[in-house]
Design brief:
This protein has 299 residues and is an alpha/beta fold. The chain folds into two domains: 223 residues, Alpha-Beta Complex (Spore Coat Polysaccharide Biosynthesis Protein SpsA, Chain A); 51 residues, no CATH class. The protein is built from eleven helices and twelve strands. Strands 1, 2, 3, 4, 5, 6, 7, 8 and 9 form a nine-stranded mixed β-sheet that branches. A three-stranded antiparallel β-sheet has the order 10-11-12. A hairpin with a 5-residue loop joins strand 6 and strand 7. Helix 1 runs parallel beside helix 2 and helix 10 runs antiparallel to helix 11. The chain is elongated and about 75 Å long. 32% of the residues are buried.
């Protein structure tokens, strides 16, 4: 039997886009869903739009609360959710019709704890650009959030970790903090191959909660204080980057180098690093002594 998925849609003054987002969600091939639209004190006609959609599909639920911020809104909605799985989706984003199905299959077939999609950004439907996101390892997540908020996880895991930290990250980065919390507790994150989220980018920059550089620096410092391993992983990530991109650096040098230098660089490359891809791992051998594997986290 298909497990119930609770889709959490926090709303704030989103009457322009919420209808399109809800239709995108309700057209899913995975039918066993409930949609919780939690209105965080909107002052426009968001409520009217959601209630109209609710008359067309009873799976839509509407909750109103005073404006407290997106982190608290998500926490409150998840507390009321009945689903085994939780899937947050922003009120102006779109998802592919097989989005939920792919994410659920990813968790159930791989045994991972979080399934995250690929995603495109767009300002209008005819100008979409795909983000080339790297695999969500703990090393990469230490340097950058390579996940999107629209990722699937179990409600029981979310409760164990304490939910979104609305006190420390009231200004943003609440989803980044949640993923680091998952990783810090040893949970496995996999990117689902055929799941696509379409992130709406507004020309006025209103899509970004922490757009100001000063605020982002402040939030990054809070992350480092909360997860001390971040600094260590950032250093390791730089070292791994140098070795894993060694071949590309040599190739660029080879393009304009004399023949004798090319032969020397080729021998140096074979001596310094060897790379072999097997199944879901990339194996590296450095100086024929140091060996390590990197997991390719993609289902």
């Amino acid at each position: 039997m298909c497990k119930l998925v609770s889709i959490i849609v926090p709303c704030y003054n989103c009457e322009k886009f919420i209808k399109e987002t809800l239709f995108s969600i309700l057209s899913q091939t995975y039918r066993n869903i409930e949609v919780i639209c939690i209105d965080d004190g909107s002052k426009d006609h968001t409520r009217d739009v959601v209630l109209k959609v609710q008359t067309l599909d009873s799976r839509v639920n509407y909750i109103y609360q005073d404006n407290t911020g997106v982190a608290i809104a998500r926490n409150n909605a998840i507390a009321k959710a009945q689903g085994y799985y939780i899937l947050p989706i922003d009120s102006d984003d779109l998802v592919s019709s097989n989005f939920v199905e792919c994410l659920v299959n990813c968790i159930e077939k791989t045994g991972c704890d979080v399934a995250t999609p690929h995603f495109y950004k767009f300002e209008n439907p005819f100008d979409m650009q795909k983000f080339l996101l790297r695999s969500p390892s703990k090393f990469r997540m230490a340097s950058d959030n390579v996940l999107v908020c629209s990722s699937l996880f179990r409600k029981e895991d979310f409760i164990k970790l304490g939910g979104f930290d609305h006190q420390t990250f009231a200004k943003g980065f609440e989803d980044y903090d949640l993923w680091l919390n998952f990783i810090n507790h040893g949970f496995k994150i996999v990117r689902a191959k055929d799941a696509f989220c379409f992130y709406r980018q507004h020309s006025d920059g209103s899509s970004f909660n922490a757009g100001a550089l000063a605020v982002m620096n402040e939030l990054n410092e809070k992350l480092k204080n909360k997860y001390p391993n971040i600094t260590k992983y950032q250093r390791l990530n730089k070292i791994v980057y140098i070795f894993t991109n060694f071949s590309d650096c040599l190739r660029k040098l080879n393009e304009s180098a004399p023949h004798w230098i090319k032969r020397y660089l080729t021998k140096l490359k074979r001596f310094v690093i060897r790379k072999n891809i097997k199944n879901a791992y990339v194996e590296y051998k450095i100086f024929k002594v140091i060996q390590f594997k990197r997991r390719i986290y993609e289902f």
